[in-house]
Design goal:
The structure holds 2 protein chains of 2 kinds. Chain A has one domain. Chain A is about 70% helix and about 0% strand. Chain A is built from 13 helices and 1 strand, in the order αβαααααααααααα. Chain A has helices spanning about 1-10, 30-35, 40-55, 60-80, 90-120, 120-125, 130-140, 140-160, 170-195, 195-210, 225, 235-245, 255-285; one strand at about 20. Chain A is globular and about 70 Å long. Chain B has 2 domains: about 70-255, Rossmann fold, CATH 3.40.50; about 265-395, Coagulation Factor XIII, Chain A, domain 1. The termini of chain B are far apart. The model of chain B is unreliable at about 20-25 (pLDDT under 50). The chains are: A mainly alpha, B alpha/beta. At the A-B interface, helix 1, strand 1, helix 3, helix 6 and helix 13 of A face strand 1, helix 2, strand 2, helix 4 and strand 4 of B.
């Protein structure tokens, strides 16, 4: 003890680079730190993509196979058998254009929720902003999305659809899909650390959500007073937006503004909840 | 020289006992919420019945000057790893304050972030990035890292096809090229082949000489001794000693320091066997016959455990006692059985002590665990068996009687008598 005290007097004070102290309750988002770690985010995304297709015979073709087969099944089941209207579009094109943002969204949720578990051993060994994990989970499906998008362009060419100038709005809809995915993903990934129940809830939730979104049917199928419900589901706006920007259907209604607000609320609350739970992750996971 | 690098003040970390189990299901949380929705909302999704706390670290305060190499020593559960985890910001303290004056790099594991499916090259980038290197930095040092790891040929092979030695070499090569001002190192140096360990120790030594601050947690006294300048002894989550490394080690190894050296094993689970005789306690005795937590090598010692016959009316014949000593990696070092030395134990009643006398303890300094077994002759029926529940520490006790320090603690497990000769060829 004595050596400690004499020691202290010699110390020349300057400001510390890092201060660690217990914080109770809400934590600041610290987005600046997240930016400092952007290279790690990039590394995580690259790792996820590489691991995904290592030791697969078909490799990146899987990015296409999944939505493509969904499209075929939907076309047969809903287009041919159930004869669901497709706003005058060929049903394959109608459903595939919706499946693209849908897969981006659902894969993002699934991967970000799982990211906390797959990275558990890293999380307990080294510090980095924990937000990187769900964010990388959301962003890594973008590669699959890009590949699948090229197929869509091919299909459009085949069916003789030329994209209109509206295609310029597409990034906004992609951003909205990513935002929704991240908002939900943040909540679920933080909850998943504590309650593994959410691992089992996610596939189920995604399936329900799929049918609550106009993927297999046009939103016009819903009678007017109930259409407003779509405002609560940001993915409805995203899908309508995709069809509008690429295939020239009716533009998404004003409801998309409500959706956007919802996404912002979801993002902020999700990020705050995640940060709040974050400090216990390493002890609980 | 005396500029502070790490300032720690009243640091504490409290864990909830059984936390891992308690948080598992949502059901508990929902039930809890249904019973008391208001309190639930206030506290968030947390189960809060019958909380029992345990302070892994309490009121820890110290300062480390820049360029110091601090060795943190203490027995298992003394709070060493918790301290390191707080310093490296993996877990948040419950109380207190830490100030770090410089960029921090932590090595708590060999190959942090390594993924078995990725190639050596890919893992260098991933692990380097995780440990806090910038991509440009890695690119600049890439050649050097590869050269240091000696795995040039396998750079584009997935790591899962590496031998464990290659894996460790690559992992260390990345870690050795970290360039933070403060380096936090857990016992990661304890693996890998000897040659490479020396290289890493050398690299770390040069790191320390460059004026970098290092906090090093280890069980291996030999490496602590050779690497560190300052020592911090932790005991039950509190600082027991803080000072120069030599003093810290002698404080730690002095028998006065220890808690009860006789480890009670009656309530330990899981155990196998019929349970007719229970292994009640284990201890190691030094030369003087006194139970001690740490014993010197090169000297006589006794490893002992007490057997308790449960049925006081019964007497047992042909009882076999076994002690298997394993090192910290769980690798068997030696095994002894009373039949091996031609001793037989008959008419065992009441409480007995089984004593294994070792004339000259050949173990290198470190922590060892003892597996204890009791069996009976017909068919080697297991009476009681405890794996990995008892442990003791060994420190350097001038094995060769030459007074020269034995510094092979890292590279070997046992010592053998031997002498050297020189034959001139001509």
């Amino acid at each position: 003890m004595i050596s400690q005290l004499t020691h202290k007097t010699d110390i020349i004070k300057k400001s510390p680079l890092i201060v660690i102290r217990p914080i109770n309750g809400w934590m600041p988002l610290n987005l600046g730190e997240l930016w400092d770690y952007r290279e790690l985010l990039y590394s995580f995304i690259i790792r996820d993509i590489r691991i995904r297709y290592k030791q697969t015979a078909l490799g990146a073709a899987w990015a296409v196979i999944q939505p493509l087969f969904m499209m075929i099944v939907f076309t047969l089941a809903f287009g041919r058998l159930a004869k669901i209207p497709s706003e005058g579009l060929p049903y394959p094109l109608f459903s595939y254009a919706a499946l693209l943002p849908w897969t981006l969204f659902s894969e993002g949720i699934a991967r970000s929720t799982n990211s906390m578990i797959t990275n558990a051993n890293i999380m307990t060994k080294v510090y980095y902003p924990r937000l990187i994990m769900p964010i990388s989970g959301i962003l890594s499906p973008l590669i699959d999305f890009t590949i699948a998008f090229i197929i869509l362009l091919g299909m459009m060419l085949y069916y003789g659809f030329i994209p209109t100038i509206n295609i310029l709005f597409l990034p906004a809809f992609i951003l909205l899909a990513l935002g929704t995915s991240l908002g939900v993903g943040l909540w679920l990934s933080a909850l998943n650390v504590q309650y593994r129940d959410f691992q089992y809830t996610v596939p189920f939730l995604i399936q329900l959500w799929l049918f609550a979104s106009p993927v297999v049917y046009p939103s016009s199928l819903l009678p007017e007073p109930y259409r407003a419900l779509f405002g609560l589901n940001p993915m409805a706006g995203v899908i309508e937006g995709f069809r509008w920007a690429l295939l020239g259907t009716a533009p998404p209604s004003y409801l998309i503004a409500i959706s956007a607000l919802m996404v912002v609320a979801l993002l902020i609350s999700g990020a705050l909840y995640f940060r709040r739970m974050e400090k216990t992750f390493a002890d609980v996971v | 020289m005396d500029e502070v690098a790490i300032h720690v003040e009243n640091l504490g970390k409290r864990y909830l006992i059984g936390q891992r189990e308690q948080y598992k299901t949502l059901r508990d949380a929902i039930v809890h919420a249904a019973y008391s929705p208001f309190r639930f909302l206030k506290r968030g999704l947390k189960t809060s019945s019958n909380k029992e706390y345990f302070w892994a670290l309490k009121d820890v305060s110290f300062d480390i000057s820049q360029g110091d190499v601090l060795g943190v020593i203490g027995r298992n559960g003394a709070g060493k790893s918790t301290l390191l985890k707080i310093l490296s910001r993996i877990t948040m303290p419950t109380s207190g304050l830490v100030e770090l004056y410089g960029r921090v790099g932590s090595l708590l594991e060999v190959g942090t972030g390594f993924h078995s499916e990725l190639t050596g090259r890919e893992n260098i980038y991933l692990s380097g990035c995780l440990l806090g290197m910038k991509r440009r930095e890695i690119e600049e040092k890439f050649e050097e890292i590869v050269k240091f790891s000696e795995i040039e040929k396998f750079l584009d092979t997935p790591v899962k096809r590496y031998s464990s030695g290659m894996y460790v070499r690559l992992a260390f090569a990345v870690a050795a090229h970290l360039d933070p001002e403060i380096l936090l190192v857990d016992e990661v140096l304890a693996v890998g082949d000897t040659e490479f360990q020396k290289k890493c120790l050398g690299k770390m030594g040069s790191v320390a000489n460059e004026g970098r601050t290092v906090v090093f947690v280890s069980h291996a006294m030999a490496s602590v001794q050779s690497l560190c300048t300052k020592g911090l002894v932790l005991k039950e989550g509190q600082i027991d000693f803080n000072g120069d490394i030599e003093d810290a080690i002698s404080h730690y190894t002095s028998s006065a320091y220890s808690t009860d050296p006789v480890k009670n094993l009656l309530d330990v689970k899981p155990r196998k066997g019929t349970g007719e005789i229970l292994i009640a306690s284990f201890w190691a005795e030094d030369e003087s016959g006194k139970p001690s937590l740490t014993i010197p090598n090169g000297k006589p010692c006794t490893l002992a455990f007490r057997g308790h016959v449960c049925n006081s009316e019964k007497s047992y014949d042909g009882v076999g006692a076994t002690i298997t000593i394993k090192n910290y990696l769980g690798i068997g070092v030696f095994y002894h059985h009373n039949f091996l030395s031609g001793n037989s134990f008959n008419q065992i009643t009441g409480d007995v002590e089984f004593l294994l006398h070792i004339p000259k303890l050949p173990l290198c300094a470190g922590t060892y665990t003892a597996d204890l077994d009791l069996s009976r002759v017909p068919g080697h029926t297991i009476i009681d068996s405890l794996k990995g529940c008892a442990s003791f520490d060994v420190y350097d006790g001038d094995y060769f009687g030459t007074g020269s320090e034995y510094r092979a603690g890292m590279s070997a497990v046992v010592m053998v008598d031997g002498s050297w000769d020189l034959r001139r060829c001509q």
